[in-house]
Amino acid sequence: MELRFYEDPETGMPHIFRHGVTEEEAREILARPVESLKLEDDKRMALGKTFGGRHLCVIYVPDPEPDSVFVITAYEIRGKFLKAFKRRQRRRGS
Fold first, then answer.
1. Per-position b or e across 34-69, b if 16+ CB within 10 A of its CB
2. Containing domain of residue 24, as a range?
3. pLDDT digit string, tens, across residues 39-61
4. Alpha-carbon gap, residue 71 to 58, rounded angstroms
5. What is the pLDDT of residue 83?
6. To the nearest whole number, what is the mean pLDDT of the chain?
7. Distance of alpha carbon 33 from alpha carbon 23, whole angstroms
């Protein structure tokens, strides 16, 4: 899968770096999301756990080009959001 990343105008680097997420971690979540949800417009949210054990949320939009996405942001899931995510996974038996 081809990934493009939103670049932070101040740094010129992918915005996900501000949240401590690497490009490879975002790729891991998008390759095997535990949950995938539709948001407003064409945006989607992928939730999952990296090979390193971090729970992440990746917000993206599909690119017009096949098998390609534009990653807007990604961040670590924490607090109530993480508790709810884990609870849903237990209910599903995942």
1. eeeeeeeeeebebbbbbeeebbbbbbbbeeeeeeeb
2. 2-92
3. 998 999 999 999 999 999 999 99
4. 7
5. 94
6. 94
7. 15
Interval 64-82: pLDDT, tens: 888 899 999 999 999 999 9
Query: CA-CA distance, 77 to 74, in Å (whole number)?
Result: 9
- Number of separate domains in the chain: 1
pLDDT(94) > 70:
no
Backbone angles phi, psi at 16, to 5 degrees: -60, -25
* Cβ(81)–Cβ(16) below 8 Å: no
User: How many residues are there in the chain?
Assistant: 94
Token pair belonging to 28: 């891991």
